[in-house]
Design brief:
Blueprint lengths: L10 H4 L9 H54 L6 E7 L9 H18 L8 E18 L2 E10 L8 E4 L9 E6 H7 L6 E4 L9 E9 L6 H5 L1 H4 L9 E7 L1 H11 L3 E10 L2 H7 L2 H22 L10 E3 L2 E3 L3 E4 L1 H54 L4 H30 L5 H12 L1 H10 L1 H4 L4 H33 L9 H21 L1 H12 L5 H11 L5 H36 L3 E3 L6 H8 L6 E14 L5 E10 L1 H7 L4 H7 L8 E6 L7 E6 L2 E10 L2 H4 L16 E5 L13 E7 L5 H7 L12 E3 H8 L3 H45 L4 H34 L6 H4 L11 H28 L2 H5 L7
Parallel strand pairs: 3-8, 5-7, 15-19, 16-18
Antiparallel strand pairs: 1-9, 1-12, 2-3, 2-9, 4-7, 5-8, 6-7, 10-11, 13-20, 13-21, 14-15, 14-17, 14-20, 16-19, 17-18
Length: 935
Amino acid sequence: MTKAGGAGRGPAAKRRPPRGPGGRRGLRSRLHGLRGDLPLLVCLTLLTCLLTAVAAGAPPLLDRLAGRAFGDRLVQAQESAPGVTYSVRVDVLQKKGDDPGAYLAADMAAMSESLENWVAPGLPGELRTDSARIVLPGIGTLTEAGPAELSLLHATDAPRKGGYAAGRAPRANARTVEIAVSSATRDRLGLRLGQRLDLGMGGLSGIHATAQVVGVFAADDDSVLWREEPLLAAPLKSTGRPHQAMVLAEPGSIIRLQEQSGIEITAQWGLRLHLTDEEARKHHGADGRRQIERALVVTSELAPDKYCPLATFGGLVCSLGLNPTGGLDYSSRLPDAIGEFGRQWGQGQAVVAFGLATLLIVALAAAFVTALLALRRRLDVHRLQRARGASALGLAAARAGHTLPGALLGLAAGLALAGRVGEGTATGWGAAVALGCWLPLPLVTFFAVRDGALLRADGAARASSIRGRRVVAELALLLLAVAGVWALRSRGTRAQAGPDPLLAAVPALLGLATVVILVRCYPLPVRLLARWSARRRGAVALIALLRAAKEAPARALALLVLVVTLAGAVFGGLIAGTLTEGREEGTRARVGADASYTGVRSNPQAAQELARARGVEHSAQVGELRISARDSARGSAYGTTSLLGVESEALLEVGGESAAARAAAALPDAGGAVPVLAHGGPRVGDRLEAEVGGRTLRMKVTGTLPDAVVDDVALGPLRSAESPELLLFTDLRALRSIEREDFGQLVLLLYGDGIRAEELRAMVPRAAPETNPGELFVLEEELARLSDDGLVGALTLAHTVATGLAVALALLALVLELLLSAPARGRTAARLRTMGLGDRQTAALHLVQLLPLVVAAVVGGTALGLALPSLLGPALDLGEFTGTPGDPGMHADVLLTVALGAGCAGLVAGAVAVETWLGRRRGLGQVLRVGRVDD
C-alpha cells in the first residue's frame, strides 16, 4: 500500500511534463528581463523619436524656409525699383482735342489695368501695377533760393487729398501750370502757397509759362514714390548747378509744355510681382524658378504685341491718349534675382546636407553604442541559452521583438512632432531612420552569438583571417572616400528636389576614412611615449599608454563619433564665418569705396556732380579695357586681355593705403609706350600692341603684377567671374588718348564719412532717358542688406540646429562608450589597487588611457573640418554668397574650434572623476570576483 500523501510519487508522477516557461518562474524571468531592458527601451525610444522627427520634418521645414527666403529675395529685389518696367516714348501732340491731359491720364490708368492682364498664364502670383508716371525734365525758373530746374511729374501713386499739409492737388488750368511741392522743397527753395513762378528761365528751350504752387504735401512716410523719385521728396543743390527739384503737375500741363519744347517724354509703368507664402514655397525649386523665368519671357513678348498689335504689318502709329508713341519697351530685374537665388540655394543645399549627414552618422553611432551596451549586459545569458540549444537567429529575433515597441513608439512620436512643422512630412525617410535605430541590437546580437563567434578553435588562423579582412575593408573604405570626393568634384552641386545621396554620403566616407587613418597612425606615437615613460619612475603612465595603444581598434566607434562631430562643427563654423566675414569683404570689394557709380561712360555729367556732392571728400576713377593683345615682335596673340587702370594721384590722396595706386604711381617711363604690369603670359621687357577704337595701342611690360594689386578693393568693381587669365595694369594717365566710350567699364569711386545715400541717388535719375543711367552703390546700404537676407539666415539656422543636435548625440554616444569600456578599465585599476595604487594614481591612469583618443579625435576632426571646403572644390562655391569671383577665402571660427576641443577634454575629465569615485565606492571583490553574471 502506498501512503495517502504519496500518490504524487508513483509512476504517473514521473510521466508529468516539466513546468514550461509559461509558469511563475518564466514570468518572473521575463519581468526581470524587461526591467533590465527598460533603460535600453527608453534610450531607443527617445533616439528614434528625435531622429524620426528630424528626418521626416527637415525636408518640409527646409522647403518652407527656402520658400520664405525666395519670397523675401523677390521683395528685396523690387524694393528700390519695380520688378517689371514698361515704357513708351511719347511724341508731341499732333491732333488737337478737348483736354488732351484727361485722355492721357485715362489711357495711363487703363494701361495699368491692361498690363496686369497681359501676362503669361503660367506666371504665379500677381503682377500688380504700383505706379504709372510721366516726367517732363529740366524746366528753368528763379526762386528765392536762386535758380532752379524743375521736373514736372504726373504719377498715379501721387499723394491723395489726405496727404496734403496745405492746399490741394494740381488741376487742369488753361492759364497757369499748377504744381504741388513737398514741404522740404517749399522750405529749401523758399516757396509759399499761391506763389507764381516764371518757367523757361534756363533749362529746356522754348518754354514760356507761369507755374503756381497750389499744394504742399508731406514726404515723411516710407513710400515707394519717394524712394524711386528722391528729387520729389527733397531738392538737391550741387556746386555750380541750379537747384534740382521735382514737382507734381497735371498731365495736361505737361503736354502743353512738351509742345512748346518739342521733345519726347517717357511714360513708365512699374509693376511688382507678389507671391504668397504658399506660391513662393512651390516655386523656389529649380522647376518652379524655370516656370517663372519662362513666364516672364512670354510676358515680355505678349504685352508689346497687345499694346500695338498692327504696328508692324499695318503701319499704324501707336498712341497714348491723343499723343503718338513708339512701341512698348519691357525690362525686368527679376530674372537676375531669380538666377542668383537659384545658384545660392544650390550651394545652400550642400551646407545643409553636410549638417544633416553629420547628425545622421552620429545618431547611428549612438544607436550602435546603445546596442553594444545592451548586448554586454545580456551576453552571458545569451551564451547560456545558446548552450541549451537556442539558435542565434532566434535570439536576435527575440531581442528585436523586445525592442520593437520602443521603436514603434519613437516612430509614432517622431512623426507626430514632424507633423507639427507642416504638411508634406517625409514619412519614408522617418521610417528608414527608425529602422536604422531598431536594427543594430538584433544585428550585434546575432553576430555575437553565432557559431563563429563562440568557437575558439584555431585561434591563430582566425585572428589572421580577421586582420586580413580588416585590411581589405579599410582599403575599400579609403578607395570609396576618394571615389566619392572625385565624383562630387566632377559633378559639382546639383540643384534637385529632396536629399542628394552623393552629397550626404561623402562626409560619412570621409569621416570613416579619417578614423581608419587615425586608428592606424595614432598608436605609433603613443607607443613611443610608452617607451619614454618606461625609463622613468612609476608604472601608471606606461600601463595607461600601452593599453591606449592596444585598445585603439576597439575605440574606433568613439573615435568616429568625435571625429565626425568635430568635423561637422568646425565645418559649420567655417561656413558661418565665411558667410559673415566673407560676405562683408565681398560687399566692400564689389562697392570698392564708400560709394561707387558705374555710369561714368554713359553719364559723365552725373559722375561730375556725384564727385562734387556734399559729404564726398575724395573721388577717383578706375577703368577696364577689354583688348586682344599680341606680341609686337613675334606677332603671337594672347587672346582676350583685361587692361585695368586707376587714377593713382586721386587714390593716393585718399590715404595712400591702396596697393594699386602705389603700383601705378611707381610705373617707369616706357619710351612712348604705355607701361604695364602683367599677370600671366608676357615677360618683363616684352612689347605688346592691340587695336582700340581704330588705333593701335602700344604697351611695354615693365614688371610683374603683384597679387596685392589684383586683390585691391579699389579694383573690386571691375572684377567679374569672366575675367581673362591675362591681366595688365597701368595708370589711367597713360590712357588719356583712349576715348571714354571705348572702355568696357569706368567706375567712379567716392570717399567720405559724411556721404548721404539719398542725396547721391537724387543725382542719378537726372540722366537723359535714352541713356543708361548706371548704378550707384552705397557701402552703408549694401552692408545693411546683408542682415536682411533670409536665405543665409535659413541656412545658418538649419546647419546650427543640425550641428547642435549632433553634438548632443555625440555626448550621449561618448558617455555610453565610456560606460561600455568602463568594466575593463575598472578591472585593470582594481588589480593595480591590490598592489597599492592610490586614488590619485587611479584617476591619472584613467585620464592618460583616454587622453590619446581625445587628442587624436580633436586633431583629426579639426583637420577634416578645415579641409572639407578644399576637398569638395566646385561642389561648395561660397563665392555665390559673398559675391566675389573665385575663392572668397575661408574664415575659421577659432573660438568655436577651441571650445569644442576643450569640451571634449572636459567631458573625459568628468568621466574620469566619476569613474574614479565609483571605483572607490565598489569593493575589490565586487570587481574581481570570478563567475559573476551580468543580467
